[in-house]
Design a protein that fits this description.
747 residues, alpha+beta, 9-stranded antiparallel β-sheet, 5-stranded antiparallel β-sheet, 15 helices, globular
C-alpha cells in the first residue's frame, strides 16, 4: 500500500471484476482490468436501465382497494390481530422497480505485437486525484481515463510499427446493430423492457419487448501515431431525463456517440489528457485527509479518498445519483437490481456530500428527489388518500414510488420522502448560504413532505399521535403467540423523521412569516402530541410501538430507530445518548459493510473512540475468507462488501471518518470528538461544518496542533463557538478569508 492516500497500486492484471479498478466521469464508467497484453474494460453508463416510466402501471393497487385494505388493517391492528393486519398491508405493493444495467466488456489487443508475458506482474496504478489508470509495463505506459471534457473512455498504449488494434465488445444486452470498421466499431444495444427483482424471478422472467426499452449506442475508434495506439469509446443512450420515457431516436444517439468518438480521436492522446486534467471532478481538490503511523491508518485515509472519488465519479447533476453499486455493475440481474434502496442505502451514499464536499453528488440527488416529488404525489393520493408525496423502499430513475410486492418489512415503508428531505436539509445546512435563502428554497418541499406524514397520523391507545402503517426498515418482531411480523405503528424511525422534518418546517415558516399556513399549524400541533425517542424498561431506545416486544433478530443490521442520533441534526439529551449506547451494545458490532459504517457514525456521535476503533478494524479487514465465504470488509479492489458488493459502505465511511474529526450539530464546532487510536496522527483539509465553514486542522498523538477556519458564504459569517474536549473558544469570521486559530488555546 502506498503512503499516498490518492494512489491505489496493484501487481499484475485483475483476474476478476472485484480486482479491477474503477474510472468514472459521472455518466460513463469503466472497471479497468489492467492487462498489458489485452486491455479489458467493463463498461457502464448511468442512464442505462431496464424498463421505462409506467412499466409497473398494470400492477398498481387502485385507490378503492388500497383504502379498504388500510381500513381493515388498522382495525385488525387495534384488535391485536397483527399478522392479519399485515396481510392487508401487503395488498398495497404489487410491482417492482427496474434494474441498473451493464453495457458490456470491451477488450483491446494489438495484432502483430508480441504478448507482454514478461509483464504479467506489471504494476497498475489508479490515481484518485487525477482520475487516471496506468499500467507501468516494460514497453511503456498504458493510460486510461474517462473524460468529462470529451465524454469518452480513453485508452492509450505502446504500439509497434504496423500493429493493428483488434476490438471486441461482448454484452448481455440484445444486439440490434454492429458495424466493424478498419479503425473501430459501432454497436446498438437494447436493454430489457422489464427485469423483475430477485425475489420474483422464480415466477417471472426478464422481458425483452423492443417497444418499451432503452437503447445504447457504443462507438469505438482507434488510431496509431508516434509509437502509440489511441482507443476512444463513446456511449450514448436514448435517455431523455429523469422520469421521462427513453424514446430518443436511436439514430440520434448513435450519431452523438460517433461525433464524440471521432472528435476525441482527432484531438490525440496529449490533448485529451490535457483537457481531462483541466476538468477535474468538482470539489475533488478541496478536501483531503492524511493519516500516519501505520499501514492501517494509511489504508483508512485511502478509503476516505477513495470514497470521495467514487461518489464524485458516479454523480452528475441531471443524471441518476449513485445507486447501490455507484456507477459500476457487471451483471444484467445485479444484487437487489443495483437500484435505489431508499430506506438507508441511497441516503448513506450521500451523507458525505455535505461534510466532505462532493457537490455533484448533492446536485444529482437534488434533481432525483425533485423527480420523486412529482411522481410520488399520485402514489400518496392513490394508496393513502394523502396530500404531499411518498416513496417507499425501492426506486429507479423512472420514478417508481409504490411499495414493491412482498413482506412489509422491506416493502411498505412510506417514509422515504421524509428521509430524503431531511438529507437535503443537511446538505443545505453546510453550504454557507443565508438561512433565509435556504428557508425559501426548502419550504415548499418540506411542506409537501410533512403534509403527507400528517395524513398518516392516528391516535394511539395512549393518546399520542402515531404513523400507520409503520415498519422499522427490514426488521421483524414476534407477537405473544410467537408469530413473526413487521407491521407496527409509530416506530422509532418514523417518530424521528416526522418530528425532525416537522420541526424544520416550523422553523422555516417562522423565518418566512408563514406561521399561519394550515400545514405548519398542524405540524406544530403534532409535535406536541408525537413523542420523540422513547426509552424502554431495559434502558434501550424503543424500536416498535410498545415496550417489551421480542425481537426476531436481536443483532439486526438496521439501526433505524437510532436515526435521531445520526444522521439526525438535533443534539440528543444525555438520557437519549445513554439509551442509544445500550441499544448499540445490544445490537453488537458484527454486521454488513454499510451497517458497520452507520454504527461507526453513531458511536462517533456518542464520543466513543474505543468503539469506533473496533468498527474500523472490521471495516478494513479482507472480506473474503480462505474457505471461499465472504463477510463484511474490503474486496481486493477496496470495494466494500455487504456482502456482496454494495457501494454504500465505501461512500458512508467518508462520512463516518469525518464525523470522528468534526461535528457541528450541537450548535458549535467540535474538533476531534471521537478520535480512535488508528487516527491519532494526521491532518485534514476542507471539511465542512454547519453553517458552512471549511475546517483545516492537524493533530499529533490525538492533540490538536494547527487549526484554520474559513466561512464559505454570508450565512457563515459571525462568531462561532469552537470546542475541543472541555475547552472552547469563540472565533469570529468577518469575511471569507481563512482565520488561523492557535491550537494551544484548546489545551
Amino acid at each position: 500500500m502506498s503512503s499516498s492516500p490518492s494512489l491505489l497500486r496493484r501487481r499484475g492484471p485483475a483476474q476478476r471484476w472485484l480486482e479491477a479498478l474503477p474510472l468514472g466521469n459521472g455518466r460513463l464508467g469503466a472497471m479497468v482490468w489492467g492487462d498489458a497484453s489485452c486491455a479489458r474494460f467493463s463498461l457502464n453508463e448511468s442512464t442505462l436501465w431496464s424498463g421505462m416510466p409506467g412499466v409497473d402501471a398494470p400492477h398498481r393497487t387502485p385507490r378503492r382497494e388500497a383504502a379498504a385494505a388500510l381500513a381493515r388493517s388498522r382495525a385488525l391492528f387495534e384488535d391485536g390481530e397483527i399478522a392479519e393486519a399485515q396481510k392487508e398491508i401487503e395488498r398495497l405493493g404489487a410491482a417492482w422497480s427496474q434494474a441498473y444495467l451493464p453495457v458490456g466488456d470491451l477488450t483491446v489487443r494489438l495484432d502483430g505485437a508480441a504478448a507482454e508475458d514478461a509483464d504479467a506482474d506489471a504494476e497498475r496504478v489508479l490515481d484518485l486525484e487525477h482520475g487516471e489508470h496506468r499500467v507501468l509495463a516494460a514497453a511503456g505506459e498504458h493510460l486510461s481515463f474517462t473524460s468529462a471534457a470529451d465524454e469518452v473512455l480513453v485508452h492509450a498504449l505502446p504500439s509497434p510499427e504496423g500493429a493493428r488494434a483488434v476490438l471486441e465488445l461482448d454484452s448481455p444486452l440484445a444486439e440490434e446493430h454492429r458495424e466493424v470498421h478498419d479503425n473501430g466499431l459501432d454497436l446498438v444495444l437494447r436493454a430489457p423492457s422489464d427485469i423483475p427483482a430477485g425475489q420474483f424471478r422464480r415466477e417471472l422472467e426478464t422481458v425483452w419487448d423492443p417497444e418499451r426499452a432503452s437503447r445504447a449506442a457504443v462507438v469505438v475508434r482507434t488510431r496509431a501515431e508516434d509509437g502509440r495506439m489511441l482507443v476512444v469509446c463513446a456511449i450514448a443512450t436514448t435517455w431523455r431525463g429523469l422520469g421521462e420515457v427513453p424514446d430518443r431516436p436511436v439514430q440520434e444517439a448513435l450519431a452523438q456517440a460517433q461525433e464524440q468518438a471521432d472528435a476525441a480521436l482527432a484531438r490525440g492522446e496529449e490533448e485529451l489528457r490535457r483537457r481531462h486534467g483541466d476538468h477535474p471532478r468538482p470539489g475533488a481538490e478541496e478536501v483531503s485527509l492524511q493519516l500516519d503511523g501505520s499501514a492501517d491508518a494509511e489504508l483508512l485515509a485511502t478509503s476516505f479518498t477513495y470514497g470521495r472519488y467514487l461518489l464524485g465519479s458516479a454523480s452528475r447533476p441531471g443524471l441518476p445519483p449513485a445507486n447501490l453499486q455507484g456507477l459500476w455493475n457487471a451483471r444484467l440481474e445485479a444484487p437487489w437490481s443495483s437500484n435505489f434502496t431508499v430506506n438507508i442505502n441511497l441516503e448513506m451514499n450521500h451523507w458525505a456530500a455535505a461534510i466532505a464536499h462532493v457537490p455533484d453528488a448533492a446536485g444529482a440527488l437534488e434533481g432525483y428527489v425533485a423527480m420523486l416529488r412529482r411522481e410520488g404525489q399520485e402514489t400518496a393520493r392513490r394508496l393513502y388518500g394523502a396530500d404531499g408525496w411518498t416513496v417507499h423502499h425501492n426506486s429507479d430513475p423512472w420514478g417508481y414510488t409504490d411499495p414493491v410486492r412482498g413482506e412489509p418489512s422491506w416493502s411498505t415503508w412510506p417514509m422515504g420522502g421524509l428521509w430524503l428531505e431531511q438529507l437535503l436539509g443537511t446538505l443545505a445546512s453546510h453550504d454557507g448560504r443565508d438561512p433565509l435563502e435556504i428557508a425559501r428554497e426548502r419550504y415548499p418541499a418540506l411542506r409537501e413532505a410533512v403534509a403527507f406524514a400528517l395524513c398518516l397520523l392516528h391516535e394511539s391507545a395512549d393518546g399520542h399521535l402515531v404513523t400507520f402503517p409503520s415498519t422499522s426498515p427490514e426488521n421483524l418482531w414476534l407477537t405473544e403467540e410467537g408469530t413473526v411480523v413487521s407491521l407496527s405503528e409509530g416506530t422509532g424511525m418514523d417518530r424521528w423523521l416526522v418530528r425532525e422534518t416537522a420541526q424544520h418546517l416550523v422553523d422555516a415558516a417562522a423565518l418566512l412569516g408563514e406561521d399561519h399556513d394550515p400545514v405548519v399549524l398542524s405540524a406544530a400541533s403534532a409535535l406536541d402530541l408525537m413523542p420523540g425517542p422513547r426509552i424502554g424498561a431495559d434502558g434501550r431506545v424503543l424500536e416498535w410501538h410498545r415496550d417489551g416486544i421480542e425481537e426476531k433478530e436481536p443483532h439486526h443490521r438496521h439501526v433505524s430507530h437510532l436515526g435521531f442520533l445520526y444522521p439526525g441534526s438535533a443534539a440528543a439529551t444525555p438520557e437519549q445518548e445513554q439509551a442509544a449506547t445500550r441499544s448499540l451494545e445490544a445490537r453488537g458490532d458484527e454486521a454488513t459493510g454499510w451497517s458497520l459504517v452507520w454504527k461507526t457514525c453513531l458511536w462517533a456521535r456518542l464520543h466513543r473512540p474505543d468503539r469506533v476503533q473496533s468498527l474500523l478494524e472490521l471495516y478494513l479487514r479482507p472480506a473474503e475468507l480462505p474457505d471461499g465465504t465472504a463477510r463484511s470488509g474490503l474486496y481486493p479492489n477496496l470495494f466494500s462488501a455487504h456482502p456482496p458488493f454494495q457501494i454504500d459502505g465505501n461512500l458512508g465511511i467518508v462520512a463516518a471518518l469525518a464525523e470522528c474529526l468534526l461535528q457541528s450539530h450541537r450548535g458549535e464546532i467540535e474538533l476531534l470528538p471521537a478520535l480512535p487510536e488508528i487516527m491519532a496522527d494526521g491532518s485534514v483539509r476542507g471539511l465542512r461544518a454547519r453553517p458552512g465553514i471549511a475546517v483545516d486542522m492537524t493533530w499529533k498523538d490525538g492533540a490538536l496542533t494547527a487549526l484554520s477556519l474559513r466561512a464559505l458564504g454570508p450565512g457563515a459569517l459571525g462568531t462561532h463557538r469552537v470546542r475541543r474536549g472541555e475547552q472552547s473558544v469563540e472565533v469570529t469570521l468577518s469575511d471569507l478569508e481563512p482565520v488561523v486559530v492557535r491550537a494551544d488555546r484548546f489545551v
